[in-house]
Amino acid sequence: MPAVILNSKKQNIAFKEKRMYVTRVVRYNTISSDVFLKHVAADSGLSEAVASVAIGAINKQIKQMLLNGHSFPIGNLFYLRYGFNCKAKTSLAAVTARDIYNQRIICRPTKNMTTKLREVKKSLILNGNH
Predict the structure, then answer these.
(1) Please, which residues have CB within 8 angstroms of residue 15's CB and are 6 or more apart in sequence?
(2) What percent of the chain has pLDDT over 70?
(3) DSSP conformational letter for 3
(4) How high is the pLDDT of residue 30?
(5) DSSP sequence for 115-129
(6) Residues 6+ positions from 87 with CB-CB distance below 8 Å
(7) Which of 32, 52, 78, 102 is the S-S candidate for 85 at Cβ 3.0 to 4.6 Å?
(8) Confidence of residue 42 (pLDDT cuts 50, 70, 90)
(9) For 46-81, what is each residue's pLDDT tens digit?
(10) pTM here?
């Protein structure tokens, strides 16, 4: 069964103007693209060279889809889309693209993946930051 460790620690919450406990997943490490490629090649039966070309083509298409405003699934794992915040204006005439800030890529799990995420074993560790 997949498992993650969660860490709760006290931190300032700006909109509440007080300190509260916040819980996040502890990330063990970031896997390099070379290690990822080796896993893809091993799981698919492709050579690393062929898997590398396939990953390159997938990366190119993901980039193009995002930059052209599309929302799209990545298999049965998640949907990706481009998103941003924009400063509110009192009139339509005052709205400009310069008011855009906090650009990001939004990742939303599919229903299947949401079910799988609920099945992940979660272990909580408490941090002593008070």
Answers:
(1) none
(2) 96
(3) E
(4) 87
(5) HHHHTSEEEEEE---
(6) 99, 101
(7) 102
(8) very high
(9) 999 999 999 999 999 999 999 999 999 999 999 999
(10) 0.72
**Quick check: 125 and 5 in contact, CB under 8 A?**
yes
Residue 71 CA to residue 65 CA, distance in Å, equals: 8
- Within 8 A by CB and 6+ apart from 24, the residues are 6, 7
Outline where the chain has alpha helix (H). 33-44, 48-67, 111-118
Calculate the alpha carbon distances from 36 to 30, 31, 39, 41, 55 in Å.
10, 7, 5, 9, 10
